[in-house]
Amino acid sequence: MLMGQDLIKGFAITISIGILASMVTAILGTHGIYGSLLCAKIARDKNIRKWFGVR
Fold first, then answer.
1. C-beta separation of 19 from 13 below 8 A
2. Taking the model in full, what pTM does it have?
3. CA-CA distance, 35 to 12, in Å (whole number)?
4. Largest CA distance in the chain
5. Which DSSP string do the residues of 22-50 spell out, in sequence order?
6. Which residues touch 43 (CB under 8 Å, ≥6 apart)?
7. What angle do CA 12, 17, 20 make, to 5 degrees?
8. Is 7 helix (H, G, I), strand (E, B) or coil?
9. Which of 5, 12, 17, 29 has the lowest CB atom count within 10 Å?
10. How far, in Å, CA of 36 to CA of 48, rounded?
11. Which long-range contacts (CB under 8 A, 24 or more apart) does 31-36 make?
């Protein structure tokens, strides 16, 4: 990005924004799904070991 021309710099900025937005969405989405759906199921289940792959 630092050594490119205007079009290259614009493309690099656009790609950077897209990657950051994708990472934030993935992290917050996963946290939301885990918090709202899985935590309640794990708390209700008696056999907690099966959720984490422990035999």
1. no
2. 0.58
3. 34
4. 61
5. HHHHHHHHHHHHIIIIIHHHHHH-S-GGG
6. none
7. 120
8. helix
9. 5
10. 17
11. none
Residue whose pair of structure tokens reads 């614009």 in the numeric block? 10
**pLDDT in single tens digits along all 55 residues of the chain:** 667 788 888 898 999 999 999 999 999 999 888 888 888 888 888 787 777 777 7
Q: Which tokens sit at 12? A: 């690099």
The type of residue at 47 is N
Mention every residue, 6+ apart, whose C-beta is less than 8 A from residue 4: 12
> What would the pLDDT profile of 22-33 be if each residue is shown by its tens digit?
999 999 999 888
